[in-house]
Amino acid sequence: MLTTCTNGSSWYLLQCKPRQDDRAQINLLRQSYDIFRPQLTTERLIRGKPRRVSESLFPGYLFVHLSNEDNWSPIRSTRGVSRIVEFNHGPAVVADEVIEHLRARCLTPATPDIPELQPGQTLQIVRGPLAPLEGVFLSMMGAERVMLLLQFLNREQSICVPLSDLVPQ
């Protein structure tokens, strides 16, 4: 929820220069600003191997906690920062409840309990356009998707399906 600037200390939204979130975060911390950059740990394929990486929840943005008495001018010239996001001709204030929710979301993993699946295990698709079909489990693709091998259109097809759409046979 974004509102216009009010009195007291609040959280504000900063836009970073392209691909400079890390740089902006480091430089603002060096200047002793209280900042928050929501990040989630996900699994990515890097050079063909699954790796756990930390990614920004909102790429190109971060939050800064400021009061009206704080010196705002260094923020505009901080390396990596593009601008303070404005709404109705004033800095956009982000409600404390939103920041608390984001902090809680980033602290608790969003991954559900993943069933133990073995390569070669038969799984049935129960939702989606391929709902009645069965496939053979090949591998996990991150925490929420599965690579299946289907016999489809007289050929073997590898497809990626959400884990929530599958049940073991």
Number of helices: 3
What is the percentage of strand-forming residues?
35-45%
Order of helices and strands: EEHEEEEHEEHEEEEE
The CATH architecture of the largest domain is 2-Layer Sandwich
CATH superfamily of the largest domain: NusG, N-terminal domain
What structural category arises from helix and sheet content?
A: alpha+beta
* Computed Rg: 22 Å
How much helical structure, as a percent, in the residues?
A: 10-25%
Tell me the domain tally.
2
Instruction: Report the oligomer.
Output: single chain
Family: Belongs to the RfaH family.
Organism: Pseudomonas izuensis
Keywords: DNA-binding, Transcription, Transcription antitermination, Transcription regulation
Protein name: Transcription antitermination protein RfaH
Structure overview:
This protein has 169 residues and is of the alpha+beta class. The chain has 2 domains: 2-107, NusG, N-terminal domain (Alpha-Beta Plaits, 2-Layer Sandwich); 122-168, Roll (SH3 type barrels), CATH 2.30.30. It has 3 helices and 13 strands. The chain has helices at residues 21-30, 73-76, 96-107, and strands at residues 2-3, 10-16, 34-36, 39-46, 49-56, 61-66, 81-84, 93-94, 122-125, 134-141, 145-152, 155-162, 166-168. The longest helix is centred in the middle third of the chain and has 12 residues, at 96-107. The protein is elongated, with a radius of gyration of 22 Å. This is Transcription antitermination protein RfaH. InterPro entries: NGN-like_dom, NGN_dom_sf, NusG-like, Transcription_antiterm_RfaH. Keywords: DNA-binding, Transcription, Transcription antitermination, Transcription regulation.
